[in-house]
Design a protein that fits this description.
Blueprint: H1 2-7, H2 27-41, E1 45-55, E2 61-72, E3 75-80, E4 83-87, E5 91-96, E6 101-106, H3 116-120, E7 128-138, E8 141-150, E9 157-165, E10 170-178, E11 183-193, E12 213-216
Parallel strand pairs: 6-12
Antiparallel strand pairs: 1-2, 1-11, 2-3, 3-4, 4-5, 5-6, 7-8, 8-9, 9-10, 10-11
């Protein structure tokens, strides 16, 4: 799930690194990423479905699964096959379906933990160098590829690519390149904004999961 939080359809960067002797960021890429961030912040709610694939260095698909994410303010819910994460802005529930086990932790908006909301807005602010690589037409869309390079070289990945619909200013997918050669690819298949999402969607209700083991880590 950490890989999911690292990439899932996300956006934008402004870092002043010249004083550290590092390359400067691409101002055009910043303009694009900031526009994506600003548009996301204007939504009251967001729902996205996506496909998550893991590929080897030899281009072999190691796994592929579908997922759904809901967001409303600081609340979020992420669903994969076999795993769900709920956050109501106070608590975070991580549910493992195979083990029928859920762990509960306290939500801390000031922590360095990556949340979907942070990834859709300004996670790039301090951690990446970024540049616009290209624009390509895909069907009726013009897709912009932005390359992110982590400033922390101890990370397990060395590149993140974000794909943006130039007209809609929305994320269409991301790709993370691990140093091992594996690639983690997320492709957005549908995006719905400003629909009605009940707050109950973001709360784990143990009554709906008979026999679930609850591990309270708060």
């Amino acid at each position: 799930m950490k890989n999911f939080y690292l990439l899932i359809f996300s956006a934008a960067v402004v870092v002043s690194l010249a004083a550290q002797g590092l390359p400067k960021n691409d101002p055009l890429a910043k303009t694009i990423l900031d526009a994506v961030s600003l548009k996301f912040k204007s939504y009251k709610t967001t729902k996205a479905t996506f496909v998550y694939k893991v590929e080897s260095a030899a281009n072999k698909v190691l796994s592929s699964k579908n997922g759904t994410i809901y967001m409303k303010g600081v609340k979020y819910r992420v669903s994969f096959i076999g795993q769900e994460i709920f956050c109501d802005g106070i608590n975070v529930w991580s549910f493992d379906k195979a083990a029928n086990e859920v762990s509960i932790t306290q939500f801390d908006p000031e922590s360095n933990t990556l949340t979907p909301q942070k990834l859709f807005t300004n996670f790039y602010d301090d951690d990446f160098l970024y540049k616009l690589n290209s624009e390509k037409k895909q069907g009726t869309k013009i897709i912009q590829e932005i390359e992110l390079t982590p400033t922390d070289k101890s990370k397990s990945f060395h590149k993140v690519y974000i794909y943006i619909d130039k007209i809609r200013k929305t994320i269409t997918g991301t790709k993370v390149m691990e140093k091992t050669g594996n690639r983690y690819i997320y492709s957005v298949t549908a995006l719905t904004t400003n629909s009605v999402i009940a707050d109950s969607q973001f709360i784990f209700d143990a009554k709906k999961y008979p026999g679930v083991e609850v591990i309270d880590l708060r």
